[in-house]
């Protein structure tokens, strides 16, 4: 879990990376841009498993989910219980 500047919490936790585009509303998804922007952070980490580039692809110059999902390792999933 990482420290955060969010005023109503001390830490944040994202156990899943990736998504699937399922509706026109997904066009405005901020998470696709964030995943593209920070994909270098996940390269080689067990959290992702496959190359981070596989999570999004560029379509008309914008990142779009590929439909792949990656779950964090068990130790990360259990972290909120500590």
DSSP strand count? 6
Tell me the β content: 15-25%
What is the number of helices?
Answer: 3
Strand order of the largest sheet: 1-2
Q: Can you tell me the number of structural domains?
A: 1
Characterize the biggest β-sheet.
2 strands, antiparallel
Q: Note poorly predicted spans.
A: none
Molecular shape: globular
Percent helix range:
10-25%
Task: Name the average pLDDT.
Answer: 79
Output the helix-strand order: EEEHHEEEH
| Radius of gyration from CA coordinates | 14 Å
Structural class: alpha+beta
Distance between the termini: 11 Å
Give a written overview of the molecule.
The chain is an alpha+beta fold and 82 residues long. It has one domain (2-7, 14-81). 20% of the residues lie in helices and 22% in strands. The protein contains three helices and six strands, in the order βββααβββα. The chain has a two-stranded antiparallel sheet with strand order 1-2. The protein has a two-stranded antiparallel ribbon with strand order 3-6. A two-stranded antiparallel ribbon has the order 4-5.
């Amino acid at each position: 879990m990482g420290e955060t500047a969010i005023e109503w919490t001390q830490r944040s936790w994202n156990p899943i990376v990736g998504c699937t585009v399922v509706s026109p509303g997904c066009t405005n998804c901020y998470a696709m841009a964030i995943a593209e922007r920070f994909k270098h952070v996940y390269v080689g980490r067990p959290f992702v498993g496959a190359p981070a580039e596989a999570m999004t692809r560029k379509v008309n110059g914008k990142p779009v989910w590929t439909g792949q999902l990656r779950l964090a390792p068990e130790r990360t999933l259990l972290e909120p219980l500590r």
